[in-house]
Amino acid sequence: MSIRIGIMGYGNLGRGIECAVKQNADMELAAVFTRRPPKTVSVLTEGVSVYHVDDVLSHKDEIDVLILCGGSATDLPRQTPAYARHFHVVDSFDTHARIPEHFAAVNAAATDSGHVALISCGWDPGMFSLNRLYAGAILPDGKDYTFWGKGVSQGHSDAIRRIDGVLDAKQYTIPREEALAAVRGGENPDLTTRQKHLRECFVVAAEDADTAKIEQEIKTMPNYFADYDTVVHFITMEELKRDHSGIPHGGFVIRSGKTGWNGEHTHLIEYSLKLDSNPEFTSSVLVAYARAVYRLGQEGAAGCKTVFDIAPAYLSPLSGDELRAHLL
Amino acid sequence: MSIRIGIMGYGNLGRGIECAVKQNADMELAAVFTRRPPKTVSVLTEGVSVYHVDDVLSHKDEIDVLILCGGSATDLPRQTPAYARHFHVVDSFDTHARIPEHFAAVNAAATDSGHVALISCGWDPGMFSLNRLYAGAILPDGKDYTFWGKGVSQGHSDAIRRIDGVLDAKQYTIPREEALAAVRGGENPDLTTRQKHLRECFVVAAEDADTAKIEQEIKTMPNYFADYDTVVHFITMEELKRDHSGIPHGGFVIRSGKTGWNGEHTHLIEYSLKLDSNPEFTSSVLVAYARAVYRLGQEGAAGCKTVFDIAPAYLSPLSGDELRAHLL
Q1: pLDDT category, A271, cuts 50, 70, 90?
Q2: Contacts of B277 in chain A (CB under 8 A)
Q3: Has residue A163 got a pLDDT over 90?
Q4: CB count, 10 Å around CB of B209?
Q5: Of B129, B134, B316, the CB nearest to A133
Q6: Chain A partners within 8 Å of B103 (Cβ)
Q7: Cα Rg, chain B, nearest whole Å
Q8: Which of B39, B37, B43 is nearest to B6 (CA)?
């Protein structure tokens, strides 16, 4: 019997979930839920119905795991605790600073109702977090570095679009090669924000806009750009659509640490991702963890979990025997 | 209260365990066991006694986890099931093909006696295995590549030393840059053994030895060298000791895979290690997992485990709250 996946929210992430479910033979897409009029939403998977979010409870028995594809700012803080009362759920809540309070709210709901709720899944938080944990446990005398990119930051792109005279924009976060080299060289450098990442912006300005003023506004924008070296390119709408329509991302988690009686040996653990599509990769992680959540639910587990709490074997469709024989 | 670690076997790995225990504030070294006359073995940690292996059972109550530092060929197949009858144990059994039978033997003993036994821990098997599992679960439509090196292969060095006229030797396994580049480029190449790794040998020959004959013998040695491009350098004993006394190693686990409704996006997951000391890094992994084994034992778990079966949080000295607040 397949694991029946429900998708809550059909944006980039929801579509990514649909594609990932198709790649996993032990899963099937059961239903898609949307806030839009369901008739206006068409999905790729044949035979799958789209329902309004308000009807989700009436489809409870058709869904093994509900994957929540809303945003971290307003959707998930409300949705995850609410749906964990009725479903095993997975979310990708990524506001790092608010994870503890999100965990507490979801844990109360999931424990109370006897469901498994996995929060903050994806690649950061998610796979990057796992690698920080593993590397830190192995090399306690060491230092962690996380670099993001090269990739599109939706938040920074949006911030540029809000500037007067800007028609559209795309912002890339780029790790600085010299910082990566220093870390990989085992130097354990102290790096400022500016030393770690560059920001490169491709901006389409209105015909009559003052581009010098826009560039200045971008470069001095607090929180988003002021602490970075920022490069601004003005391009045409045609160029933006042609060259910058993808949503690539990625990054590096590196730990450099010492071992030996007097710390005489240095080691470098590096995990890196190079992703053509940030939402599709994130979705692929969520779907693998949906398998784990389903299995934990079958075992009678309940409460809120993170990637830290889930034994790796739960993610794989292979049996313990197969894993030991082929992957160990 | 500290986790009390016992070390069985005091070679390179055992000494690495001792150093790693020193780095972990929640652990202490309880005792070292050796097959040699205990008086001839001196350890680095003040106040720790060395006992003969035959006396290990009389120190049962002083040890929370016994880390087995013997070899995979003859020691561990016998030792791990035997000691799992009396201790929570961790081993680094690394004969990949024989893991299923080792698991079965250890599982029977550990289940029967109510102990937790973790086998095949280290970096390969171990951290590399974990990364193969995670990456494969996330990108089911993809391909795995494992490269080893640059690093010293003890087995290949030993094979050269057995050749007539060879006084000493060190062999480095080196991943080929062009193969790594093809994999990182998302080409999913089919690579032969020869295309993946080079073998570089540093050999000290006896004064009257026929070096051309030795070189020929190395390069044509079945299993060890015949399937590889091998480079042989003859050097002096002084040079060998000066330039090749370390035991560095490392490698890469790379998965390249596709997502999207028609597989239109490519992703690359790469995990790499660059290790100054292979035994000390392996020891550091074993010690982190000893913490997990101790905790599982405290929870009443029993049986044989691998790294696949252990939730990451068990490895860290941090609490769930701390992990979520700082590493997620």
Answers
A1: very high
A2: 259-260, 265, 267
A3: yes
A4: 17
A5: B316
A6: 324
A7: 22
A8: B43
CB-based contact A328 B120, cutoff 8 Å? yes
Question: What single DSSP character describes residue A206?
Answer: P
Give the C-alpha separation, A96 to A104, whole Å. 14
Q: State yes or no: ipTM above 0.90.
A: yes
Q: Between chains, do B308 and A321 touch, taking CB under 8 Å as contact?
A: no
Q: Is pTM, for the whole model, over 0.80?
A: yes
pLDDT digits (tens, 9 = 90+) for A189-225: 999 999 999 999 999 999 999 999 999 999 999 989 9
Best CA proximity match to B326, nearest among B313, B314, B309, B308:
B313
Q: How far is B275 from chain A (nearest CA, A)?
A: 5
How do residues B260-315 score in pLDDT, each as one tens digit? 999 999 999 999 999 999 999 999 999 999 999 999 999 999 999 999 999 999 99
Shortest Cα–Cα distance, A184 to chain B (Å): 9
**Are the beta carbons of B310 and A311 separated by less than 8 Å?**
yes
Q: Quick one: closest CA in B to A307, which residue?
A: B312
Name the residue facing B133 among A141, A310, A327 (closest C-beta): A327
pLDDT score, position A187: 85
Write down the H helix ranges in chain B. 12-23, 75-83, 99-113, 127-138, 154-161, 177-184, 193-196, 211-219, 237-243, 278-298, 320-326
> A259 and B129: CB-CB below 8 Å?
no
CA–CA separation, A67 and A210 (whole Å): 44
Going by the DSSP 8-state scheme, the letter that residue B247 receives in this structure is B
* Dihedral sign, Cα of residue B123, residue B129, residue B132, residue B138: negative
Q: Which of A139, A280, A324 sits opposite B259 (nearest CB)?
A: A280
**Which strands, in side-by-side order, build the sheet including A88-91?**
A49-52, A27-34, A3-8, A65-68, A88-91, A116-118, A303-305
Residue in B with minimal Cα distance to A12: B260
